[in-house]
Amino acid sequence: MPPLTPPALEEIQAARKRIAGVASRTPLLRLAPRAGEVELWLKPENLQPVGSFKIRAAASALGRLPRAALARGVYTASAGNMAQGVAWWAREAGVPCAVVIPDGAPQAKRDAIERLGARLIPVPFERWWRVLVERQYEGLDGHFVHPVSDPAVIAGNATIGLEILEDLPQAAAVFVPYGGGGLSCGIAAALRASGSRARLFACEIETAAPLAASLAAGAARAIEYRASFVDGIGGRSVLEEMWPLASALLSGSCVVTLEETAAAIRQLVARAHIVAEGAGATSLAAALAGRPGLGPRGSTVTFPAGPLVCVVSGGNLDPSTLATILEDRLP
Hints:
Elements: H1 9-19, E1 29-30, E2 40-44, H2 54-62, E3 74-77, H3 81-93, E4 97-102, H4 107-115, E5 119-123, H5 125-134, E6 143-145, H6 151-167, E7 173-177, H7 182-193, E8 199-205, H8 210-217, H9 243-249, E9 252-256, H10 258-272, H11 278-289, E10 293-294, E11 300-301, E12 308-312, H12 319-326
Parallel strand pairs: 2-12, 3-4, 3-6, 4-5, 7-8, 7-12, 8-9
Antiparallel strand pairs: 1-2, 10-11
Helix pairs in contact: 1-2, 1-6, 2-3, 2-6, 6-7, 10-11
């Protein structure tokens, strides 16, 4: 598909109307300060009906389609969260839903998808990644909802940016987990379209950080992917159609370790009474680590002075994984 362009403010506002009554307007919460810490705020998208921001993306993408386009049902490729968003919407609309899911997806996410009435099609990670690249899966002929590089998906995600600025117009930077770039680029587009000077830092996990590698190379790059308990972000590469957006809108990549992410999950539980999945906690992990972001061609980008906002993208975490992390062990 051709490279994407940032959604205009009018498109984001239209998406906001489409998702009204489906997605919640989540609050912006101040993280109880500790000595020596910067001012930190949390945007808890784990409070959405499906436990993640993906309900915004699904409602925006599917809410704009005529009923005839849904006659054969809908399907998506997802590690779990977009699947729940699409399945939730499909159940409400009364249309069938199928989900191509990596066979290593957490059981908690699998169970939630099936409770929403969707049919699971587990495949190896490599095959699942091909669906994202090829935008289709042989044998399924319903309407395919791409979890990342769909303009309406990006516009739905961008509504988070509008809410952040309404609640904290002086935000200096926003930290957002980076999976395929639909969330981070959407929020960054909303900030820019609204006239904000806040920077957007994409947050990646050390086991799968294609954006950092791509920024260093100056072009979309593939990487060696390693599975971990941080299953909601990270892939084999930056999608080619997302690279122009990501390289233009994002200030840099903040790569965090598994240990830092587990520590952030514990802090969210103890200090904010929030349960975040691994991906959702990378934003706080990056802000607390305080390391400069990785910018183009090996450059570094320091965090600006002022309030920092961490988007907690989701909270769909297996209870056993959470228990292990709370015991100060790594899953």
